[in-house]
Amino acid sequence: MTQAATTAVGPRRVAVATAFAGGTIWLLTHEYVGTSSDGAVYTLMALSWLHPQAFGSDLFVAFGSQDSFSLFSPLYGSLIGVLGLLKANLVLLVAAHLVWLTGAWRLAHRLVRGRAGHFAYLFICAMPLTYAGWSVFGAGEPFLTARPFAEGLTMIGVAAVLSRRWLLALAAFALGAAFHPIMVLPGLGAAFVVMVGRKPVLLWAAPLGLAALLGLAMAHVQPFARVLVVMDGAWFSAVNLRNSFVLTSNWSALDWARLVCDVTPCVAAALWSRGARRSLFAGASLMAIAGAIVSIIGGDVLHDALVVQLQLTRCGWLPAVIQFAALVVVWLRLRRRPLGRLSTVLLAEPAFMLTMEFEKLAWAPALVLSLAGLGLAGLTRFNRQPQLSWRVERRLIAAAVILPLANLGLQAILMWRVAAFTIRLGLALPSVPDFLPMRLILLASGCSTALMARNRPWAAAAAVALAFTVGALTFDARTPWERLLLSGRTLPVTRNVPQGAPILWDEDAADVWFLTGHPAYVSETQSVGLLFSRATALEWMRRRDLIAPVLRPTGWATPNRGHSCAEPGRQVSLAAVEAVCARAAGLAGVILDEPVAGATGFITRAPKETLCNKGADFGVIRTRRFYFLACDTLRAPVGSPQLR
Fold first, then answer.
1. β-strand 130-131 against 137-138: which pairing, if any?
2. Is residue 449 situated within a structural domain?
């Protein structure tokens, strides 16, 4: 082999090893949890598309949802029809992860060239990517929704804009918008800033675009027409009750600090970059800030329906991802300049401080350190930095890392405590994503593998193969109950219930959807659709109040603080169930976890585990026996008064 060929093989080995190492880290930090969280809602929308007679009357979709603006449900529903629920869920989830990782790889290497780009990619794969209010959202979610597809395609589109591959960029943005239009917005905005930086005349497209959107709204074209709709008091109150995190007025100081700390590395990288990269970092930061401002004015103040539904604070996902590439850029530019290393350390510290349990205490220091790092980077850019010796800078760095190190120590202690707790209660052991020290170990291992690949390719391949095997063996982290939900088996006790008739069970609608094959009458899960339809919001509130004698809807407001382990089981009388059945027109039956006279008892194949508060600790309640009451046998005879 010639010297030139040998020289070319080395970087390719490193690139391949880095790609597989990042994918393995992603596998280890994104365990399969089934249809948890929003994954259940997206699965319902797919089932509603596939079986409209069975699920089309469910409260979440009956009055309209965001589903009509996405191709995800037809794709997901078609796969369910061919492969079954579990296989379809897994196939699409793996595809979503591959698209996301491809986008992260391409964007990281457009922002940072060479080996440094490999490290940026590994940082993105290993670190938590939480953004927006209440730590509800995270880029690259571990459960199946349309968002990871849209995020990955958006990153591919942005990378294509940076490399002037316009057709690829257009195709990626269009396909991403077809999956989830909201998630593409920050990428489109950042790409527009890049293009304006190259051709300032394109700035005129902004007012023209706004005029076009206003024209579509005046022509009553959905969803743009919703910008002319104002949420009334009842609708807005319902959204504020259950979807509080979408309203920035409900954000805590921690949430705002997280947004600022995500943006500051991008702003610093913009100061120290040139051309399109500078515009990209600046554009992503601008979109995150603009999204928050528009949300405040349009959503919290004006109660505009479209602004609330767009959840423009989601524009923060792009800075939350590329901040790690930005930190690598700042390090490369400043590492040999006075106070450059200190500036980089200060900018990076919030990523190691704003984590579970420590973030509520550390948000203020993290915000101050991040802004100080940005200030130093700006002063250095214009040669106005303080003149300090390396010894003083080193001492400042040592003082600055005290809080991140304290957090790592706290996380290690917490990890052992949680492990002991789960073993004591017979639960699954805590997973890697829950603790920052485990993520940092994986990050260090990935970087070592990338460095080792050039001279020791077989050792690097063996390390990646071993880690991938461990990840594959531990990938399925579903609880026994979640396995039951995706098993495709329905409860025999509800098979005689008419198709499409709703059933009332508990706060988790997935139990009804997947175990009975019927719509849920009302649940906490369905409340995520309150902001998309006034009719849904008012009907959900009415049904929630109606079923109060049977369930505990008082815990359905966010945040849900759970129930006390010492609280006795809910003793529901037959008269209470009869009253609910009489008032709830169309309700087919009620499933309870406590015996009621005349109910049909049944035992599930796996127990439903519910965490409860036990003083300063937690406990777990396992339930396998449930009781079904058919409303048809309880309702008053024809001719008697029916309450609505």
1. antiparallel
2. no
**Confidence at residue 632, expressed as pLDDT on a 0 to 100 scale:** 87
- Are 530 and 537 in contact by the 8 Å Cβ rule? The answer is yes
Angle between helices 359-381 and 402-425 (to 10 degrees): 150
pLDDT at 616: 59
Query: How many CB atoms lie under 10 A from the CB of residue 180?
Result: 24
378: which 2 tokens? 């700006």
Positive/negative CA dihedral, 55, 58, 64, 66: negative
Split into its structural domains, the chain has a count of: 2
Q: Which of 332, 353, 387 is the last residue of a domain?
A: 332
Question: What is the pLDDT, as a whole number, of residue 554?
Answer: 56
Question: At residue 200, what is the residue type?
Answer: P
Report yes or no on whether pTM surpasses 0.85: yes
Residue 580 lies in a domain: yes
CB–CB of 354/257 below 8 Å? yes
Measured CA to CA, the distance from residue 403 to residue 121 in angstroms comes to 26
Cα 215 to Cα 435: distance, rounded to the nearest angstrom: 49
How many CA atoms lie within 13 Å of 322's alpha carbon, on the beta-carbon side? 40
Task: Tokens for 517, please give them.
Answer: 């094959």
- Unique residue bearing structure tokens 């939350």: 320
**Cβ neighbours for 457, distance < 8 A, ≥ 6 positions apart:** 13, 17
With H, G, I as helix, E, B as strand and everything else as coil, classify residue 528. Answer: helix
Evaluate whether 482 touches 39 at the Cβ level (below 8 Å).
no
Low-confidence ranges of the chain (pLDDT < 50): 1, 3-7, 558-561, 638-644
Amino acid 207 reads P
Write the DSSP symbol of residue 613.
E
Last residue of a domain, one of 332, 366, 387: 332
Two tokens, residue 210:
């706004």
User: In the prediction, which pLDDT does 498 show?
Assistant: 92
CA 429, CA 548: separation in Å to the nearest integer? Answer: 35
H-helix or E-strand spanning residue 622: strand 617-630
Those residues whose C-beta lies under 8 Å from the C-beta of residue 165, and which sit 6 or more positions away, are none
- By the 10 Å C-beta count (0-12 exposed, 13-18 middle, 19+ buried), 164 is classed as exposed
CA dist., res. 182 & res. 175, Å (int): 13
The residue assigned the tokens 């690829």 is 168
Place of tokens 């409209």: 52
In a domain, 590, yes or no: yes
* Residue 354 included in any domain: no
* Helix-helix angle 253-271:275-294, to 10 degrees: 160
The whole-number pLDDT of residue 570 equals 61
Which residue do the tokens 């979109």 mark?
A: 287
Domain extent for 144: 105-332
User: Which of 549, 634, 548 shows the shortest CA–CA distance to 589?
Assistant: 634
Contacts of 355 (CB under 8 A, 6+ apart): 128, 407, 411, 436
